[in-house]
């Protein structure tokens, strides 16, 4: 340790030069280094080659070639596009395999159900047991392997992309748990989606791939690069799930980011396109499709997709979806909170963790049992089949359904001999609505996008069929008859409801990419925007809701046009009672600060009088400083020293024989051994007196910050920074807290908490806080406020009084005083 | 003036209190203000109403109602969505009217050309004169009214959205010049686009609307809000131009922003959707269309849009478009630079400003004259007609064209009796390529997107027709025959080339929205991404190229995966020789600093020794300080005082008569008048001696910063901030420069210039700079580097030496010194 200190001290003059007259020095050094570096690297390479040639002789050419290839590959591996292609490829494969397994699972259930048609009870057992087993396995597997894999993953990714480190969320274990858990969960046929988990899986893939690639080069260890790659991975996740590259990029941006770097845009597009491409090519290769097309291709007429007079109906879908979306988020949160609050239930469920999933699955699958209640809500259709039928371009209400459908015949499920198709649709919507809200609370890897999407499509279909029944020959009056296309309404409804639940506009794009038709662009856009407007004013998005439930660190968005944000200043919300330590403080101050506060980082100021902010120190660093000062090694050392001193004293006094000496040494050794075992008894023991005294002395010593990591540039704001700007900076830079300074002096601190409170407070108590406290003080100036001037006055006055008396001129103050 | 000073001095104690113990004071004051404010506003309102009722008596109810309505309206007018709807509506109307006028202009030309078919020379005259007159008028009109309206406007908007204030770019004059100039320019039939100018027009609209709305309330004066609205306006501009809301939003983001706030996203979508909707509704209302559909609707088959084996052809289109796009940008820049460099030409053109446009128009229209060379390049088609025929879903190469086309018959233009359709296409591409590059340099309001789009479509068509000729029965082997659709290739080509020129991916979305079909999504995405990859590695985007030509302040993007950016630190690029002023400096220092440097803002530090950064002051502020100190009012005053003193002295000495007194006074007046006229002669005149002495004295006085605007929070970086992060912060916050501090001490400054140099330098000299100069110094530590530690050492040592002598502990430095 002393040696290190010495080196540092020796190094000082050189660094002094480095920082002082670097203007010249840096340029010289730079030129020198660049040249020598170039020469060196060339020399290095040729030397390696020479060496190889000399050493091996025979298969030298081979080896040289290999080395060259290796070098080339390694240099290429660092390029972003290689990484993105690998990521896209991997995710397309994962997505396809997961889809394949899910399809097999669902087929197996159908086969079992179909094979047992002789006995309804056996049929029911098969219908119910299958999903219960799968969901229970999924829940158990996830619980055991990685509980972080539970749920959608989008809220966590949003938090991670904000810069917060969530432990264990990007590990291989989580990856395995998420993929297998998701496959089983979706294979059960419950109303769950794969989109949210795929965002998480893609991020996991990217993180693991990064780790793997870092074996080849050091580029993959850069943090900001990793965050950029994670953002691209989120796009890949959505893109390869829906084969929707553009929608995937936009959706992932809307859902995970607050600020988006356009330079990162191409990464998402590149990877998502590649991934979607491979995903669809796999389908062609597997002979599922003839060529690359959309996932849920529609065949609406192109020449007259909809009439202008149908737009009010589309607007109604949008507004209703907005309310529906908010209700869904509310219902989902209500269920979670209800289960958490009911202590009796909670205790029971906690003990038998797998009971809740099993019970929910039992309930849902019982209700969808096709010969039972399921016959009134197209219960035998899987999610995918429902969506295909809902987006069908035929009209159900007018035409007889059964006779005309010669192909798969899934639409038959909607037609009940006794019950109207409208009733079936309404029942489907209502039942699926609460089922989906309930099912997404099961602790398995699952998303809510797809179920909501299907419900939205059903709702749109309902409105469309009603319109078709109302205007059998279409609305358009002059010329040709253009009948209404209920499938178009389903598209609009799907986009609107999923947009409302997730608070995104890009579901519109996803819908176009999913259906392969963009002819309904204006109705879809109008409905999605209206749905968003309604939903955003009522509830947070589903992901934000989960973030709040899970108590992840978050920053609320500045909502739709809350102008008062522009008027609130940092000085109105900052905490003025900042915990700080001074550069010349003693260990006792450190001790006190650590005891009273609970902040993660502490401000370091020059002195308590000047309050000039020098930097911030992490709590852990301070703790280690303190423990270093008072820790066992130093205690032992002190005791040894003291013992030695006493010994010397004694030997001077009594001058004992040599056997005495050896005895004393052995005693000392014993003493030390004891000390090592029972350090805490010490203070009460024999030696407690002088140890306490020593401690006091140690605490009074000045802190040595030499070996302490100090962040020299904690983020600083000034009093007059607006809330709007503060929010921008916090979300841009992913801050946790920022110090408020006034001309270098620390005067306050703002953390996420205060910011959150300020934003949410003024959102809810809108009428009251439009003029924030102290607002009247700032209407006068724009840039140079009175506060700043005052501070400068003081400094200026101080300097004036300190400077030498000069010849007097008729300055303002003099004029006044005379 | 003294009075003002007095007030400020009086006000000091109060502000002193305000800043000192604000913790308590602020809370009290806030509560008091809030309550009283509330009470007051309620009281105010009721008083107004009472007053009205009392005063008028009779039609009081009416008036109260009016006042209430007015209040309600004013409160609503402040909402963003009202503003956005108005903006969308306005822009849709402008777009439609412009389109309408252009269509009439083009029809008139056709009519003239068609009516004179008896004489080819007259035909030629008509064909050529018409565009020459229109373009010349457009150029002259723009030149006279607002030269800022020239060109696309996107580069300027990009600069404005970075936070730079460009004067006169957002005025009503520019709006008028841009709209009328654009209409005339496009009405001439030259290969020009309306998209870029529409971005500018929409921004103009937003700025003017903002100004207009600010009459109703004060919300519209907030700057960050205005920037957000301008960003939305850019989206509206593209959206209402192509009826492409999604593509418009994305394109405007890619083209104008570096960082994008997702919370601003909905604004763009909302306004652009509304605008596109109204734009298309106007077409329906005008009976141009039966219902709302895409602008260039295609009718490709849905079931099998393309075969997997066609993808290489699409990739080839993408790569070729990338090279083509880069070539276009290069050509455009070359033409501008050539004309600028040729001094003889330049001088001549400068004198006759309208000659250049006229000459270019003459050349282009001569070459497209249909009976002349134009017959080989479909010269008689307007831009819109060309695009419609190029996107046609029939195959030209196989089928006879003439006989099958029963509708408009524009496709006939591509078929020449003697010449192959391939030759026509190649000629069209080549001729239009240089024509467009040349035409966009004409000083009229014009964009390059649409011409490039058409050329791309033609190129795609060429490849498609070749493919169709090569595989007459399609590539797909098993089962049904799916012939190749050359129109699909045209779509891909259009997106790829326009994407390459503008460096955007969102042209893909624009293409889908323009054609109303999304079936070719994967080929389009692949081609666009490849085109971007090629073009971005060769040339800047067209808009960045114009920014550089126009020398607007810009910040280059961090390119595709330049990892070395992560390793360069601010200390490597910062300027260490910072111009600064100290708080206790005298006016002479100010004078010297202003004489030597040319920076817009100067750093204010506490003292030259401590170098603690206190803020930054604008140059203009310092100049006004200096001129205040040495300006005429003070000079005159000094002279008057001196004269009075002399007079008194004289009167004491000689005690003259009353006529002497009056004479002296008249003399003084004359003296003053002279002074007012010839201030600079003074110093050499009679009085020069004591004036020079006075000046010297004034310059030695300490500067009074009281009335000076100081920015208390200039942006600060630390030495170890990476280039990557610096770039992010600069582009996020739109900075012009940032100070580099080390624990409060100013040690350097980084401006856009240095940053630009660092980024571009390391981009071009890629191999060399991978390890930047001085990089080897930093491989050791991660957060606490030696530099910081050194600085802290020094501070700590200073404090230790200043503090009282304490009991010595075996600290590092002591150990070393002993």
| Averaged pLDDT of chain A | 76
Number of helices of chain A: 32
Query: Which class do the helix and strand fractions of chain A yield?
Result: mainly alpha
Biggest interface goes to:
A-B, 162 and 161 residues
Radius of gyration of chain A: 35 Å
What CATH calls the topology of the largest domain in chain A is CBS-domain
Top-tier CATH class of the largest domain in chain A: Alpha Beta
Helix fraction of chain A, binned, reads 55-70%
Give the total of domains of chain A.
Answer: 3
Topology, number of strands of chain A? 8
In CATH terms, the superfamily of the largest domain in chain A is CBS-domain
Oligomer: homodimer
- Side-by-side strand order of the widest sheet of chain A: 2-3-4-5
Report the span from N to C terminus of chain A: 64 Å
CATH hierarchy: architecture of the largest domain in chain A: Roll
Q: Uncertain regions of chain A: pLDDT < 50 for 5+ in a row?
A: 1-27, 400-407, 673-684, 763-818
Which outline of chain A best applies? elongated
Protein described:
Chain A is mostly helical. The first copy, chain A, has 3 domains: 76-286, Orthogonal Bundle (Clc chloride channel), CATH 1.10.3080; 308-396 and 413-550, Orthogonal Bundle (Clc chloride channel), CATH 1.10.3080.10; 570-798, CBS-domain (Roll), CATH 3.10.580. Chain A has 32 helices and 8 strands. Chain A has helices at residues 2-20, 22-56, 60-77, 80-115, 120-145, 154-161, 172-187, 195-213, 223-242, 245-256, 265-285, 311-341, 343-351, 355-367, 383-390, 401-404, 421-439, 449-470, 486-502, 507-515, 521-538, 542-549, 570-573, 587-596, 619-630, 632-654, 658-677, 688-700, 723-733, 752-764, 786-802, 812-817; strands at 259-261, 580-582, 601-605, 613-618, 710-711, 716-717, 737-742, 745-751. Chain A has a 4-stranded mixed β-sheet. Chain A is elongated, with a radius of gyration of 35 Å. The two termini of chain A are 64 Å apart. The interface between A and B is large, with 162 and 161 residues.
């Amino acid at each position: 340790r002393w040696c290190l200190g010495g080196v540092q001290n020796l190094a000082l003059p050189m660094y002094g030069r480095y920082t002082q007259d670097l203007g010249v020095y840096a340029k010289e050094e730079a030129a020198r280094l660049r040249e020598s570096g170039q020469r060196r690297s060339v020399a290095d390479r040729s030397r390696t080659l020479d060496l190889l040639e000399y050493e091996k002789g025979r298969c030298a050419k081979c080896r040289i070639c290999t080395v060259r290839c290796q070098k080339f590959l390694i240099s290429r591996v660092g390029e972003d596009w290689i990484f993105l292609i690998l990521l896209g490829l991997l995710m397309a494969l994962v997505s396809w395999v997961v889809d394949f397994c899910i399809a097999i699972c669902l087929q197996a259930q159908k086969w079992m159900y179909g094979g047992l048609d002789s006995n309804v009870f056996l049929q029911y057992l098969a219908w119910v047991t299958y999903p219960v087993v799968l969901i229970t396995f999924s829940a158990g597997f996830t619980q055991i392997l990685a509980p972080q894999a539970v749920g959608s993953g989008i809220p966590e990714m949003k938090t991670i992309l904000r810069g917060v480190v969530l432990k264990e969320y990007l590990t291989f274990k989580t990856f395995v748990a998420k993929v297998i858990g998701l496959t089983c969960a979706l294979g059960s046929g419950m109303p769950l989606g794969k989109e949210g988990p795929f965002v998480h899986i893609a991020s996991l893939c990217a993180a693991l791939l990064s780790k793997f690639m870092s074996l080849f080069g050091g580029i993959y260890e850069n943090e900001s690069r990793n965050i950029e790659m994670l953002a691209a991975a989120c796009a890949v996740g959505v893109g390869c799930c829906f084969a929707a590259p553009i929608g995937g990029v936009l959706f992932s941006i809307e859902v995970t980011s607050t600020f988006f770097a356009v330079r990162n845009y191409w990464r998402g597009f590149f990877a998502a396109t590649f991934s979607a491409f491979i995903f669809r090519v796999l389908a062609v290769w597997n002979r599922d499709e003839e060529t690359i097309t959309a996932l849920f291709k529609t065949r609406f007429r192109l020449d007259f997709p909809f009439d202008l007079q149908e737009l009010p109906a589309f607007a109604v879908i949008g507004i209703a979806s907005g309310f529906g979306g908010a209700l869904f988020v509310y219902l989902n949160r209500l269920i979670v909170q209800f289960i958490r609050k009911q202590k009796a239930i909670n205790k029971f469920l906690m003990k038998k963790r797998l009971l809740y999933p099993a019970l929910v699955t039992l309930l849902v699958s019982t209700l969808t049992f096709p010969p039972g209640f399921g016959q009134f809500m197209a219960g035998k259709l899987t999610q995918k089949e429902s969506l295909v039928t809902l987006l069908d371009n035929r009209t159900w209400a007018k035409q007889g359904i059964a006779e005309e459908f010669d192909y798969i015949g899934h639409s038959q499920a909607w037609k009940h001999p006794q019950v109207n198709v409208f009733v079936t649709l309404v029942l489907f919507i209502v039942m699926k609505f609460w089922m989906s809200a309930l099912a997404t609370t099961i602790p398995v890897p699952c998303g809510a996008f797809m179920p909501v999407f299907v419900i939205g499509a059903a709702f749109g279909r309902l409105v469309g069929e009603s319109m078709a029944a109302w205007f059998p020959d279409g609305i358009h009056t002059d010329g040709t008859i253009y009948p209404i296309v209920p499938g178009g309404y389903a598209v609009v409804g799907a986009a609107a409801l999923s947009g409302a639940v997730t608070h995104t506009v890009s579901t519109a794009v996803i819908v176009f990419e999913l259906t392969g038709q963009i002819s309904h662009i204006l109705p879809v856009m109008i409905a999605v925007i209206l749905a968003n407007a309604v939903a955003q004013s009522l509830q947070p998005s589903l992901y934000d809701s989960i973030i709040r439930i899970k108590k992840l660190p978050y920053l609320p968005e500045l909502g739709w046009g809350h102008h008062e944000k522009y008027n609130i200043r940092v000085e109105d919300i900052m905490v003025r009672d900042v915990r700080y330590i001074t550069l010349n403080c003693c260990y006792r101050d450190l001790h006190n600060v650590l005891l009273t506060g609970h902040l993660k980082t502490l401000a370091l100021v020059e002195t308590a009088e000047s309050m000039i902010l020098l930097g911030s120190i992490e709590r852990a660093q301070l703790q280690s400083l303190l423990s270093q000062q008072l820790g066992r090694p130093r205690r032992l050392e002190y005791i040894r020293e003291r013992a030695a001193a006493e010994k010397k004293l004694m030997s001077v006094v009594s001058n004992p024989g040599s056997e005495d000496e050896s005895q004393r040494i052995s005693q000392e050794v014993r003493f030390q051994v004891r000390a090592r075992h029972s350090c805490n008894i010490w203070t009460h023991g024999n030696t407690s007196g002088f140890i306490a005294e020593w401690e006091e002395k140690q605490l009074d010593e000045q802190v040595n910050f030499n070996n302490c990591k100090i962040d020299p540039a904690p983020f600083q704001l000034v009093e007059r920074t607006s809330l709007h700007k503060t929010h921008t900076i916090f979300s841009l830079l992913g801050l946790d807290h920022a110090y408020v300074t006034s001309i270098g002096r620390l005067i306050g601190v703002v953390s996420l908490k205060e910011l959150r409170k300020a934003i949410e407070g003024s959102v809810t108590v809108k009428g009251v806080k439009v003029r924030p406290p102290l607002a009247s003080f700032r209407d006068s100036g724009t840039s140079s406020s009175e506060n700043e001037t005052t501070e400068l006055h003081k400094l200026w006055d101080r300097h004036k009084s300190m400077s030498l008396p000069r010849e007097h001129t008729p300055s303002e103050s003099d004029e006044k005083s005379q």
